[in-house]
Specification:
Elements: H1 15-23, E1 26-27, E2 32-33, E3 40-45, E4 50-57, H2 65-77, E5 84-91, H3 94-105, E6 122-127, H4 135-148, E7 153-157, H5 165-169, E8 177-178, E9 181-182, E10 185-187, E11 190-194, H6 209-221, E12 230-234, H7 241-249, E13 254-259, H8 263-278, E14 283-294, E15 301-302, H9 309-316, E16 321-327, H10 329-337, H11 341-344, H12 349-359, E17 362-365, E18 373-377
Parallel strand pairs: 4-5, 6-12, 6-13, 7-11, 7-12, 13-14, 14-16
Antiparallel strand pairs: 1-2, 3-4, 8-9, 10-11, 14-15, 17-18
Helix pairs in contact: 4-12, 6-7, 8-9
């Protein structure tokens, strides 16, 4: 790393303090200090408190370059004596990119993932028996709620045919690739990966069999998730190939079953629960979505989809009912607008219930014999 320091201002600006300020700046995608990533180039002290800094990007098409410039400018501007900051953007060379990719892998063998035995990340497989129960909306808002509570959170949109995470988070761009590693797309404090980032919005996904398995495997092994506290897997409805593939890849994933109060939704969701029990998959619990319809004018709640589906499902699969989320206007409109309700409507009835569920989300581990046992609460 080349550091150029020509001080034309005398002692008014301390170069060490400038570097200390830069050390506090992280690349928003790598989640890594710029200096540790080898992204800090020349630093020059000019006249009258001017500081010139070169930042070397991993790729010239970096989608977060404006934020990076803003973060560097803000950090260095806080140093005593600095009156102006000029940031010049460059690009890493191939050898530097290769070294950085190796550092990000952290010695992990290529083709393996970080969520295996001994991982400190809590992985939840959010599943439903049928579509239309708001599973992805629950996943998205639960992820934001956990992030707002200080956790490092990722969402893998494994619903490859009906992906909706890009829409719910309001982002649609290709992830940055770095020598075989993909960087998750970040939105609202959550790291995201979805097939929707790789295809046009109206393009159908017709993967199946080995191609489907390989894609999911790559999302686990070739994505730099960083140090996560929680990873949420948004599964497609039912008990098909995707669910079984992910069970093979992450056997310690915990099932989070989503249903509505309707008998039809509860009955098919029970099949997912039985599959989990048959494979000794830990079950964190049940979330009942659309429990009631909240009148926007009077706040009166009406059980338009019936009552008791969540409780019946919880009893059937021997798991706790974690919460009952009402259907209100903010939850629906925020999804259409691409801003999670946790951000757009923090006082909505649905949001307050999701926030409560996130704060009490249990952690269960696969037992060696028999049923999994609950160990703790996040």
């Amino acid at each position: 790393m080349s550091i150029l320091s020509r001080n034309r201002t005398g002692p008014s600006v301390d170069l060490d303090e400038v570097h200390a300020a830069l050390a506090r700046v992280e690349d928003p995608e790598l989640k890594m200090p710029l200096a540790d990533a080898g992204m800090v180039g020349d630093v020059e002290l000019g006249r009258n408190g001017l500081v010139r800094i070169t930042v070397r990007l991993t790729t010239s098409s970096c989608p977060m370059k404006d934020r990076l410039v803003s973060d560097v400018t803000g950090a260095v501007s806080s140093v005593a004596g600095v009156t102006r900051v000029e940031v010049t953007l460059g690009t890493m060379g191939e050898s530097e990119r290769m070294q950085l990719a190796g550092k990000l892998r952290g010695g992990r063998v290529e083709g393996t993932h970080q969520f295996g035995e001994g991982s400190s990340t809590n992985v939840y497989a959010v599943a439903s028996g049928k579509g239309g129960v708001g599973k992805s909306s629950v996943t998205a808002n639960l992820a934001v709620a956990l992030a707002q509570q200080g956790q490092r959170v990722g969402v893998l949109d494994a619903d490859v045919w009906g992906y909706s995470i890009p829409q719910l988070f309001g982002v649609r761009r290709s992830p940055v690739a770095l020598k075989g590693l993909m960087m998750p797309v970040e939105a609202h404090g959550v790291s995201l990966m979805s097939v929707g980032f790789f295809v046009e919005e109206e393009e159908p996904v017709v993967w199946r069999g080995p191609m489907l398995h390989k894609a999911l495997e790559q999302f686990m092994t070739d994505v730099h998730w960083g140090e996560l506290d929680t990873l949420l897997l948004d599964l497609p409805p039912g008990t098909g190939d995707v669910t079984m593939t992910l069970l093979d890849l992450i056997p310690d994933a915990q099932l989070l079953a989503v249903t509505t109060p309707q008998q039809a939704a509860q009955t098919v969701a029970a099949r997912v629960g039985r599959m989990a029990r048959d494979t000794r998959m830990p079950i964190a619990g049940v979330v009942e979505n659309m429990s009631t319809l909240v009148c926007p004018a009077c706040a009166e709640q009406t059980p338009i989809f019936g009552e008791g589906g969540g409780a019946r499902l919880a009893a059937t699969i021997d798991a706790p009912l974690l919460g009952q989320i009402p259907l209100d206007l903010p939850l629906r409109t925020s999804g259409d607008a691409g801003v999670p309700a946790m951000v757009a409507a923090p006082t909505a009835a649905s949001v307050m219930e999701i926030r409560r569920i996130a704060g009490e989300l249990p952690v269960v581990r696969r037992s060696l014999v028999g049923r999994p046992l609950a160990l703790s609460v996040i």
